[in-house]
Design brief:
single chain, about 400 residues, five-stranded antiparallel beta sheet, 3 domains
């Protein structure tokens, strides 16, 4: 299949304003006005696209004509040439098209050659370009009324060699048009999103910046950098979520340090070593927490519960002559550290019985107390108290839930 090339001649159509046409074309190529004039219009005539099928080339030529500039579709050729006019290098062009575009006094050079030749040929009688199709005429009329939409198929042409030296590069610069320019704002937004991950209070600014760049690129479809803008939005959003999420500080667990309880005097006045005798008759300690209670001469009853890192043990704080408990208390440990007694006052069995206790989980303790009368066994469960093991104040504490 024969291929065509699209050539921008540099001439404006009748009735067109140069500044308006240049502004339209610069927007279509996604270029700044200064760069557009230097890379495109000051180099015309030149090849804009190569290797196109006829339908595509005609469609793009119609787009350029609709903007008010002359554009030609010619057969593509491997033989290219450059023009030098008024010290400015123009092109490249198909060598067969030189008679159409060269002026008297111009110089030309083969692409890849080293020698400039004076142009002395008369313009050849090349066949006239076909008349624009009706739809092209309608597009041109619309262009006079309002700027046409920016075409998405045009790309900036490659840069030419320096005007002070003859072209020495092979035909590759004209064979493949350069890529559209990369948006600097998109790269900056991506770097700012990465910075927001390190310093999260910047995350709202990073998100707004990424959104602004995306809108900017949406309005300029020929600019590259959408991937950078999306990455910036993801980084900024992640930093914002991390900034908004404030996890609770991890509880500080104190290392176990033995803190012996103060020995309690026995209610048996007849024997000074009664607590030791009663301890010998009581259940043997099962762990370090039980042994800790023995240092305070508490008498274990054998009732205890453990849930996770919390341990609760029942012990007698006083005994009668028969080594029977006369007052009971619950002692709470967490991570092996003694937190304190659960009850403000030990349950005196003469009027209050510690009916039951339940360690619901490692942070909640339920205690049932029964009020008793003077008659033995006449007790009724009337009070239930709730306690919580919670972090605070440099360690874990025990408090009643009111």
């Amino acid at each position: 299949m024969d291929h065509c090339c699209l050539i921008l001649s540099g001439r404006l159509l009748d009735g067109q304003d140069a500044a308006t046409v240049h502004t339209r074309l610069a927007a279509a190529f996604g270029m700044e006005m200064g760069g557009f004039r230097e890379r495109v219009f000051e180099r015309a005539p030149l090849i804009i696209r190569r290797g196109l099928d006829t339908a595509t080339a005609q469609a793009q030529a119609a787009q350029l004509r609709a903007m008010g500039v002359e554009a030609d579709v010619l057969p593509d050729s491997d033989r290219l040439a450059w023009l030098r006019r008024d010290g400015q290098i123009r092109g490249p062009l198909p060598e067969d098209a030189l008679p159409r575009y060269a002026h008297a006094g111009d110089q030309w050079c083969h692409d890849g050659g080293q020698t400039w030749f004076d142009w002395a040929h008369a313009p050849s009688a090349m066949p006239p370009l076909p008349e624009p199709a009706p739809e092209d005429l309608a597009a041109e009329e619309a262009a006079e009324r309002e700027p046409p939409p920016i075409p998405v198929t045009l790309e900036p042409p490659p840069l030419p060699p320096m005007a002070s030296t003859p072209p020495t590069a092979p035909s590759a610069p004209a064979a493949a048009p350069s890529r559209a320019p990369l948006s600097t704002a998109a790269v900056v937004a991506a770097l700012f999103g990465l910075l927001a991950l390190l310093y999260r209070p910047l995350s709202p600014v990073a998100v707004l910046l990424a959104l602004g760049v995306l809108i900017h690129l949406y309005r300029r479809p020929l600019l590259r950098g959408r991937a950078f803008a999306i990455i910036a939005l993801v980084l900024g959003g992640a930093a914002f979520l991390l900034w908004m999420h404030h996890p609770a500080a991890a509880p500080v667990v104190e290392a176990y340090v033995p803190r012996p309880l103060k020995p309690l005097p026995s209610h048996r006045a007849s024997s000074a070593d009664a607590p030791a005798q009663c301890t010998a008759k009581a259940p043997a300690p099962k762990n370090d927490e039980d042994r800790f209670l023995l240092t305070g001469e508490r008498v274990l009853t054998g009732r205890a519960q453990r849930k996770g890192d919390t341990y609760v043990a029942e012990a007698a704080v006083s005994v009668n002559d028969e080594c029977q408990p006369s007052a009971l208390q619950l002692y709470v440990f967490h991570h092996g550290v003694f937190l304190g007694p659960a009850l403000d006052k030990a349950a005196n069995l003469a009027n209050t019985r510690l009916a039951d206790f339940d360690l619901v989980d490692d942070q909640h303790l339920s205690v049932t107390l029964a009020q008793c009368t003077e008659k033995p066994g006449d007790c009724a469960a009337t009070t239930v108290k709730q306690f919580a093991v919670m972090p605070g104040g440099g360690g874990w504490t025990l408090g009643e839930i009111k």
